[in-house]
Amino acid sequence: MDTIIGIDIGFGFTKATDGKKFQVFKSIYGEAIDFQFKESLLKNNQEQDEHIHIDVDGISYFVGELAERQSANRQFTLEQTQFISSATKTLALAAISRFVSKESESFKVVVGLPIGHYRQYKDEVRKILRQSHQISITNQQGINQDTLIGISDVKVIPQPIGTVMDRLLDDVGKPSDMRFASEKIGIIDVGFSTCDYTISDKARYSERGSLTTQNGISKAFEVISSKLKDSCGINIELYRLFEAIETGSIKIRGKGYDLRKITQIAFQQLAANIASDANRIWSDDWDMDAIMITGGGGAVLAPYLQPLLEGVIIPIEQDLDYRLHNVRGYNKYGRNIWPQRKAPMES
After folding, report:
1. Which residue among 72, 174, 205, 271 sits deepest, i.e. has the most Cβ atoms within 10 Å of its Cβ?
2. Residue 183 φ/ψ, nearest 5 degrees
3. DSSP codes, 246-288
4. 3-158 maps to which CATH number?
5. CATH of region 161-217+262-316
6. Distance between CA atoms of 221 and 269, rounded to whole angstroms?
7. Average pLDDT for 40-68
8. For residues 194 and 212, is the Cβ–Cβ distance under 8 A?
9. CB atoms near residue 225 (< 10 Å)
10. What does the pLDDT look like over 290-316, one tens digit per residue?
């Protein structure tokens, strides 16, 4: 029986789930190197490290934090065409490799695309993924495992629909929260590079009320990075700002910089732009019942966004990291369209 995997390949993070466990890593990959010294400097510290090392098409890659920490040439982009052609396959297989336990496994995959890129790239993404992939997985001890990953089917859906499916369906893909099947709900999905606006009207996708803009959380990161460059003369890569913005400070060449004030200003301005777009796009949708804010960027912008939006806000359930609602919804949707058959009982 094929394992159903939901994958959200974002510009900032790649997320995946089989419905039981989640994998999250930065959407960075780079050339693998041969370690001269593999042991951790502290006892038991190695077990806590994220280690994703795979060979795809004969090329060896470090992925996520391992690439950020060890690779000399790292790949990270906010350009959609380049992201699809060069990153999608590597990041998707890296995510699936975390669910592999034997030499040959078969999967069905649900993956999302930003609304503005859905029509152009959905067939290409499906073609890239729907095939057999021979990869090699290397663990922290340097032991290789050759694995054949067979992806028998791929469903590509507009990205924000994942959050609707997460609230509408239960863990086996059956409708449970009928509010999302009977009401008109607007969704604002703030990702790293893009912001998606869409409407679920009685669980049907509304093309007219849907749009993608470039107002992802990276816009605020760019402002913060620019201010830091003015202060210290160093251009900080955007993907290296996640932890600094979360903690409110960063050290550059041993000197500490407080990021709280500039972060607040950058988030306020970005939230104002997003709310303005939403109020404009949905100006004719006065019959909308409620609005949902989702996505990793939505998690940090929600307090700034909510007072600026015209409508009732549905709070996202706090049982899960904001970044994971879409991908959990993808998995539930996969279980809905590919029902899992129970094995026949033995007589």
Report:
1. 271
2. -115, 170
3. HHTEEEETTEEEE-HHHHHHHHHHHHHHHHHHHHHHTTT-TT-
4. 3.30.420.40
5. 3.30.420.40
6. 12
7. 78
8. yes
9. 19
10. 999 998 899 899 999 999 999 999 887
Exposed, middle or buried: residue 48 (CB in 10 Å: 0-12, 13-18, 19+)?
A: exposed
Q: What token pair was written down for 99?
A: 């669910």
Q: What is the dihedral of CA 302, 303, 305, 310, to 10 degrees?
A: 110
Distance from chain centroid for Cα 224: 22
| Residue intervals in the chain for CATH 3.30.420.40 | 3-158, 161-217+262-316
Q: How far is CA 148 from the centre of its chain?
A: 24
According to the model, what pLDDT value does residue 341 have?
Answer: 62
- pLDDT in the model for residue 66: 93
How crowded is residue 346: how many other Cβ atoms within 10 Å of its Cβ? 4
Looking at the chain, the whole-number percentage of residues with pLDDT higher than 90 is 68
